[in-house]
Structure formats: structure tokens, C-alpha cells
Amino acid sequence: MNTKKLMEDFRLPLVLVLLMAALTLISPRFLTVANLSNVLWSICVIGILASGAIYAPITGGIDLSIGVLAALTGIIVDIFMNRMGINWMLSIVFTIAIGAGIGLFNGFVLTRFKVPAFIVTMAAKTYLYGVAMVVSNGGMLAILGPPEFMAIGNGKTFGLPNPIFIMLAFIVGSHILLRYTVFGRQAIAVGANETAAKLSGVDPRKVRLIVFTISGSTAAVAGIVLSSLTQQTFAGAASGIELEVMTAIVVGGTKMRGGKGSVVGALIGAVMVALIINGLNLLNIPAPFHPIVTGIVILVALLLNQGGSPMKFSKNIGAKAKARGQA
Amino acid sequence: MTKRTNADDVLLDCRNIVKSYNGPMVLLGVDFSMKRGEIHALVGENGAGKSTLIKIITGVEPRNSGTIAFDGKEITHDHSKNAAQDLGIAVIYQELSLIHGMTVAQNIFLTKEPKVPGLPLIDIKKMNEKAQALIDKYRFPLKATDYIEKLSIGQRQTVEILKALSGNASLMIMDEPTSSLTATEAALLFEIILKLKADGISVLYISHRMEEVYRLSDRVTVLRDGKKVAVLEKEQIHPAEIIRLMIGRNLSANELGHSMVKKETEPVLEVEGLESEGEFSGITFTLRKGEILGFGGLVGSGRTEVVRAIYGIDRLDGGTIRFLGKPYKPSVKNAIAGGFGFIPEERRLQGIMAPITILGNIGLTNLDTLSRFGFLGGKRELVMAMDGIKLLNIKPAHPDIPVGNLSGGNQQKVVLAKWLIRNLKLLIIDEPTVGIDIGAKDEIYENIERLAREGVSVILVSSDLPELTRLADRIIVLRKGRIVKEFTEGVVTEEMVLRASSGLEEGGAK
Amino acid sequence: MTLTSMRRLILIAVMLVLGAVLTILNPVFLTLGNIMTLFQEASLVGIVAIGFTLVMITAGIDLSIGAVIAVTSMICVNFLSHTPIPAPLFIPVALAFGALVGFVNGTFITRFKLPEFISTLAMKGILAGLALVIAVKDEFGFVQNVYIQDETYLWFGGTVGNVHVVTIAFFLLAFLTQTFMKRTRLGTNIYASGANLTAARLTGINTDKTIVGVYMFSGVCAALASIFISSRMMTAMPELGIGSEMDVIAAVVIGGTPFTGGIGDIWGTVLGAVFLALIKNGILKLNMSPYIQPIVIGGIIIATVIADVWYKDFAEKLVVNAARRKEILEQSRGDVA
Lengths: 327, 510, 337
Fold this sequence. Notes:
CATH topology of the largest domain in chain B: Rossmann fold
Helix content of chain A: over 70%
Strand content of chain B: 25-35%
CATH architecture of the largest domain in chain B: 3-Layer(aba) Sandwich
Largest sheet of chain A: 2 strands, antiparallel
Helix content of chain B: 25-40%
Radius of gyration of chain A: 20 Å
Largest interface: A-C, 47 and 44 residues
Distance between the termini of chain A: 45 Å
Number of domains of chain B: 3
Oligomer: heterotrimer
CATH class of the largest domain in chain B: Alpha Beta
Number of domains of chain A: 1
């Protein structure tokens, strides 16, 4: 029994190691500090988003609005700081509050009117995009200051880019929230069996409201980091990022139907997907193939999650991609 | 196969049916036969093997051995559900197979709708006409164009029957069909059954309700502990006799019965005049500290509804409750805070969270005691989980196993454990040992008895008569939503409880 | 069912009022040309929405339809036009591709029991990438615009008299699909599978096959729409249709088909598509910022869903109370008897 559980716990990191081994074999450029820190850096925004967005699938729902919310909050924080002259720290606080508020609204519509999560958040994705366009006048806003704000995305601490620390902080925080707090337990319970959870004294409505508020807040943080990082913001930023976030979450072992989730797994999932993309780049496979591979990865992960017998993840990802590139 | 012809024209002939589920034998060589155009009741206690026999006849489960002949033709070992349907065996599910958003006619003819000649289109007019003709033949107050959602449960059941009829069923199996019906609807159902018989259709009727069995049946087959103990002809059908046959184990143990114990301790729960529209009324009783109060009654008598209302899950329309001497408003939150637990009837649907570990399940009810400022520390939870595992002897004894992987008995123990760990004052248990094998049952009984010894009050709802009489200090019997009998002292036998549940007079023949 | 009819009447009334207001504010609205354009827009969304309606009736979702449009338009315009295959044959190829995608979607959902929104979302990603891969690129890797010249193909984007071909196709498809759903056994089976999967199975319906078929139809509708779209534009881009799911969902939701499945009909979707086109057209004609459009559409979706829930709760309470009262009356009479 213990060995089985051990196997399950280490399955994901094992695949990660195998993947890295495969990539090292494929290209000598893989195992360099420059390349690896690049990979980590590329997933910062996804990691922050995943840390908050993971709670929705755990309770059996989904939040499709996180991408647009990240774009919108990037715009808003810029407006606060650079158009309204508000202090950068306050601007960040206000922006996160707005993100939380939007998340709370989504949760409210969901719980009060029993509308499926994907509809509520998909509609939110639409109208928030419109709002973002209106507020930004459809244009691209360059962000050049204030310097403290720019440091968030572009500064380094101990030699590593700041966003990596922010992401790690959120991952760790979310991990603790999920594993070691009452709320985390209740969220898992609601997703596993809502009736049983209710009979054990859990209030699913309250739980869901908090879930979506968290989702919105982390989306805001992601948006702030993203806009600082890229030194710009526009309504279409982070477009389509929901799929990448969901891929990371699913690959990391979270079940979309609820009841099971792993934040650290989501991080590993994000890293794995980034590594795969990195591998594709190293193999000079053109950009359009990347989303195809990502899509296939999430489907495979879903199949494995649902299925019973643990199949061995193919070591030949690199070879497969190579074959496709030559097709 | 040569067709068996005899004067009585046997429709269904099951011989020597043996069935075991991975070990325990459920049917030990049962013979069962039905004639054409006969109303035949199948009775027996829970666990006697009735449902299993039905599943074998309808092809849902395969039998280990034995022969089944239907309409003279032998049915092979692996006959499937659809094959049974094609032969003309229909089960009435009590509305489970009806589609909302569709009319009566549409439901009756689903997948068999009459077509417009030459086109792949459904002839709606013809479908409605045929449906109405069928309805009118039995003089139901239904219209072919009524939508299912607008019908009452009794009416929907009628549609189920019509659906079976349109499929040329020659044998209809009905399992406790009146449990959700009003008196008027039940009367209508009986008329329908009699009309079916007049049309040469056989009805296999499973019920605990003696007055129905007495009223309707041409013959009765009694099952007990997986064996057929009797087949009674019409003249021999008496409810009291049937009950005696159903229960009569080794008579000595049964005659002894169990003594009721009167407790003089302080009252823990006092309910008065509880009522819920359409479910129950006039429920009054007092539960004392350390007492096990048994709730007896037939399926549908309202027991589960009463306890759910007391716990705060379902609505209560009237009555007062006092808990530990103080007025109490039913709600799950109040209950848990006050040391009041509830183990639901369907543990798989409502009691356990399958993907979560034993530790997680046990911990969930106890998060308030485990956490500091909302945070949970690893060690205390583990200690609590191990305590629970040890206390109830849960196997496998690892806290990290998802509960979904445990056996039924161990799953039930997990549900029990999460409440036992708390400082409970009162625990409601609804059908504690359904689907659990004998060995595990005893363990659970010991735990319940130990609880009571330690001063916890227990309300035990159970349809398992030996279980009820063994564990309870006092037994209240419900029937049709009202308390009809309270056994407070003296010796109570299973037969006595069943008679009270069935509304029969105390002692002697009917 | 009066509930549905009343809802539809309200919808039509609102449209008439909006139309009147728009005409007052901008008389150009009520010209033949504009009305025809409005219907053309409605039809382009509507064709996809018809397929999506069936998916919703089975209580599912298909988020990949936008990407199907992109890929099939790429297949026709960029790929096949470089082969000796004659243009009219593009159409069956495109439809077959749509059916294939639907088959894969349906299989994932029925056989492998994957959650619909994630698996179709993943499919969307794959197809979007595929569209880019197929796109013809120049030596620098930039996508080239290929212009269609074949007359047969272009006919789809044209008009017959004053009415656009696509509008005719839309209404024709709506009529055929509605007849199919309400008047054939297969259509009834689809409703049954969506309303109550277990009951449908118990009655002998092969729900897996039915659901896969529905997703295939959805894919075909998307493919069909892409032909009209690319024909009208005389070219195609790999982004074509991506993100159009919202419009489609809006049309179906406004039309009154619920997510829970088992209920819904095509004429409702037709109304929804026309309503949506009206809103979009109105926003344009009033010279409002085009950014208002997604806000309005998203807002309408939420408002419609909430209103529908409210209304259903309200109506249900009425029915339940009436039934309960009747039951109790019967029961008390029965006990006395």
C-alpha cells in the first residue's frame, strides 16, 4: 500500500526528470543556466494564475475569465499610477481589490442563480474584454514607470528575476491554503461530494464565493506582474492563457470534476509544458505547432487522470514533435 | 426445447436458482414459478433475496446455476437486460425511466414511435391516438398529450405501466410500487393490476404491505435467508401467517425476542408534535441519555423523513424540539456545534467523499476542533484519524487511502468514525448496515452499543428487524407518517415489530 | 408550452421596440440593404448556432466550433486552392472535416468521459494551431492572403435577388433541423439523451452514438458556416472565427435553450441569432464605440440566464404548490375512506 502511494506521489516529478533527460539528449543547449532560467521566467504569469485558478476545478467549476481579467487589471493599474497619479503601492492594492470584487461577483451569480461556472466566467470574459477595450481605448499602453513598479517585473533579487519569487510565493501560499487550512479542506470536500460535505457542516455557497474571489485576486496580481514585465498593457494581453493554465493544472493531477487537486503539481505541470515548448523551439519546430502539442498534452493528461491504470508517459515527446515537424 | 404445456399454463418457471456475490450465498437453490394472468406476490425480509431474484429474472445479474424458462422457452445463462425486455418481461421503475419535457404519448412510444408511411417522420397524431386508446382501455384519468412533469408520482407510474404494455409485456414486475403513492393513487393502481390480470398479463408484486398482498395476490411466495420457504395459494393467504413465515428463523431465538430497557436518565431530545406536510405528523417522543431508540416501520413510513427534519436537512412545518433541555432550531450547523451527528442512509451518495483519504473524511466534521486560526497542523489530524481507525478497526489501517477504495463495511466505519471522534451527545443512524456483510455488521453493532454505554443517545432507523430488536432499548413504530406503536417494556420480537409496521393487531391470527 | 411561447413573444416584442427606436435614431436602419445585411450576419452566426443548439440539448458544450471555422476555411482557401481539385468539391471535404472533429469530440466525451468544456477547449487550441500550420506562408513565414476566384465558391457569398444565399441556407437548415428534431425518432432520442441519460438508456437508446452524432453535426454546421464566411470575404485568415463561440452561445441562450439539456428548439435559436444581429447592427448604426459590443453581449447572456432561472423557480413553485395541495387533499380523503 505504501509503495503504491509513493509511486503516485513521485510519478509527476519522475516524468519531469525523464522529460528533462530526453531534452538534454535532444539538444546540448538545453541544460544551460540561461535556457533553464528562461523557461522558469516564461511560466511566472501562468504559475501565479494557476495558484489561484486551481480552486475552481477543485470545487467542480472553472474560471475562464482569468486571462481577460489579467489584461484588464494591467490596464487599470497603469491608469491608477500613471494617469491618476496614485501612489504605486496603493494602485496595486486597489487593483487587486477590483480583481477580487469581479471574482466575487462571478461567484455570486454562480451561487445565487445556479448558473454553470463556465457560462458565468465565459460571459465575464466577453464583457470584461469590452470594458478593457473601452478603458484602454483599444490601444496599447506603454508602461514606463514608476521605477518601483517596473522593478516588480524587471528587477532581480539574488540574481533571479523578481517574478519568479512572486510566483513561488503564491504557489507556496496556495499550497498551504489548500493542504493546511480549513478552507482548503472544505473546497476539496465540496468538489468530492457536495451532499456529504453539507452534512458535515460545510457551506458550499460560502466556499464557492471565496474560491472565485481568490481566482479574481490572483488574476489581478498576474496582470500586474505581466504588465510590469512586458512594459506594456492592452486588452488582448494574456489572451487564451486560460488553456495554458488549465493544462498546467490538469497535468499536475487536479481532477476537473473536483475533489482532488495539487498546487505543487500545477507548478510542475506548468514547468513541463514550458519544457515541452522549449524542446520544440530547440528542435526548430515552427510556432503554430506549439498550441497543437499543448492541446494534445492536456487531452492525454485528462485521459490519464480519468483512467485507472497509470500508463507510462512517453519519453518520445521530442521524437514525436520532430516527426511532425518533418511531415 | 419442448414447450411445457399444462392445465395452468406456466409463464415463468425458475428452478434451483443459485447466486452468490463473491463469497456469501444470496440465493440457495430457489424455485419460483408464475402462471399466465396471475398476480403473484413475492415477500421476504430485507436480505431474503427478493431483489437478487428479480435481477436474475430481468437479466441484470447473471445466475450461478439453475434454469429459467419463460413462455416455454429456456433462457440462457447470459441473457441480457434487453433480451429480457424483448421476451416480454418488464420492470416498472416508478418513473425512473420517464423523460421530462415529453408527453405521455411520447414516453410510451419512445424509440417505437409510429411513422408516416413512406417518410422517416413520426406520425404525431397517430401516436397520440394510439396512446389515448391504451389509456382509455384502462380508464385512466390521463391525456396522451399531458407533459410528464405535470403528473403526480402515481400518474407517472401509470405511464410506466403503459410503456411496458406498449412493448407487449406479458410479465410486469413491480417493486414496492405503493411506497410513494397516496391512498387514492394506490387504489387506482390496484384497479390497474386487476385489469392487467383480466387481459392475461402476469404481475409479480413485491411488497412488505400485508394488506395489499392479501387483497391482490392469487399466490404468494415467501423467501427467507435465500430459500423459498412457502408458496401460499389464495385460501392460505393470511398476513399474520405470512409474517410468521418471513421471520420464523429458529423459533427459540425469535420467541425470546429482546427485552426493552427503560432508561431513567435525563432527557436529551424532546420532540413534540413534529409535522411536515405530506410526510409525517404528530411525532412526539423523548430520548434519554445513553438510550438507543429504534425507529421501525415499512419503507415509506416516514422514518427517514422525520430524522432528516430533526437534523435540519429537510423542512419542518410544525412542532417543537428541545435539545439538552433548551429550545432547539433544526439546522446542520446547530447540530454539529451541539454534538449532534447524522449518518445518512446512502453512505456512498451522502456519507463519504470517495477521492478523499480516510484522514480527510474523518477530519472534515472535526475541522473546528482541529484547527487553530483556520490552520490545520499535520500531527493532530493524523492522531485523530489513527484513533478513529483503531477504534473501529478500519482496514486497511492507513490514513492515506482514498475512502473510495475501501469495502462497503469499512466505508461505513469511516462515516461512523468521523462522528465518534467528536464529543457526541446524540447520533442519528439511518440504516447502518445496508450492504455490509455479517462480520462487519457485528463490529458496527458493538460500536453502537459502546456509544450508548458511554452516554451517547442514539436514534436508530432500521429495516433490519434482528438488528433493530437487538440494539434498541425502546422501539417506536411508524406507519404512514404517524407513530402507531411504542414498545417500551417487556420482550419484543421481530414479528411484533413487523405486525405493528403492517398495521396488524397484536397477537393471534388476523 | 406557454412558458416558451411567452418568452418568445417577449423576445419578438423587444426586437420590434428596439428596431423602432433604432429607426428613429438612425433612419438608415430600416433600409432594405441594412435589413438584408442584418439577416446575413444573423445567418452566419445562426448556422453554427443550430449545431450548437443540438449540443446544448444533450447538456453538453462545444467550445471548438470557432476553431473549426478557422481550420476549414484554411483548408478550402489556402490548401485546396493550390491543388487541382475543383472548387465545388471543397465543400464536401470541409464538411467531412467538421464531422471528423465532431466525432473526436464526441468520442472523448462519451467513451473516455472527459469533461466537455476542457476537452473541447483543448480541441480549440489544437485546431487553432492547425489553422496556422495549414496557412500558406511566404518565404518570411508571414501568412499570405489567398484570394478565391472560383465562381461556384463565390456564389455562396452572394445574393439571390435581394436575399443573401446564406440567409436562405440558414432558414432552410433551421426548418430541416427543427423537423428532424421534433418529427423523427432520432431527434426524439436526442432530446431523451439530454433530458435523462439513464432513462434514455433504460429505454434502449444508444446514448453514446446519439451524442457523438450530435457533436458531428455541430462540427458540420461550423464547417458549413466557414464556407459562407470565406466566400463572402473572398479570402480567409487563420484567425477567422476564433472567439465566435460567444456569439453562438449568446444566440442559443437568448433563444431559450437551457444548459441542463432535454429542452430547446431551433426556432428559438433563430430568434436569438436575429436578436443578436440586431443588437450588433444597432450598435454600429448608432455610431457607438464598437467596444460596447462585447460588454452588451456578455451582459445580455448573464441577464438572460439569471432571468430564466428566476422565472423557472417562480413557475416551479406554482406547480409544486398546486400539486402538493392536490395530493394532500387526496390523501386526507383517502384516509377517511
